[in-house]
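Quick start: what a row looks like.
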Amino acid sequence: MLEFSHVKYHYKKGPDVLKDVSFSLDKGDCLCLLGPNGTGKTTLLKCLFHYYEPDAGEITLDGKRIRDFNAKERAKELAYVAQSTRIAFPYTVREMVLMGRTAHLSFGSSYSEKDREIAEKVMERLEISFMAEKCVQNLSGGECQMVMIARALAQQAKYLVLDEPTAALDYSNQIKILKILWELSEDGYGILMTTHFPDHAFLVCNKTLLMKHGKVSAFGTPDEVVNSENLTRLYDTPVNVARAILSDKTKEDAEEKVCIPIMKVRKKK
């Protein structure tokens, strides 16, 4: 279990960014973290990876404090995909994905045949093998994001943490990544993802955490937490959670919840 217990954090000469944050994530869970910009979501993730030391509270992984893991131990447990990544050197896609295996190397050793096979299988799974020899510096933002996700999967950590993983992707690749995240949670991975799309909670997640002004405003299943009242209060804009009837009515899941912003605009004639 990954657990945040009463975590607080503030930047120097500033107010608290995280205020008594508590929640848990089990292996096999897919947790969706929702909240407006500036509410502390990315700061929370940086505390998880011990880039920042919380002022109070504790973060534990399988009962062990995150602060007690060294960098290599942490990398074997947690894989991270940032919102965006700047690549300073002209690595190929294959080389970048292979870097996900670094946490499994002993000092002074090189990548094994097994490491290379894992990287190849991950690229096949994400359907990016065709650009294996391309330079990552020449990729589009969406293509680069797919490579970063592939690198995280090659790491084979128990928990996968993604900060807005679909933000730079086209619609098709968004759906592809969401399907893969769902499959990984089914395989026993713990998934923690931030997003600005509340619908993602209904599509692939079994837990949802709502945060605003550094505080947890709600935590539970998507059906319990993602509703019109909570989203309207979370984003300070009217939102309606409705049921959409799918075209294939023969299936049991012929309905799906969707989030619709209520906009008063002049309709074109």
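That is the whole record. The two ends are 55 Å apart (CA to CA). The first strand starts at residue 2 and ends at 10.
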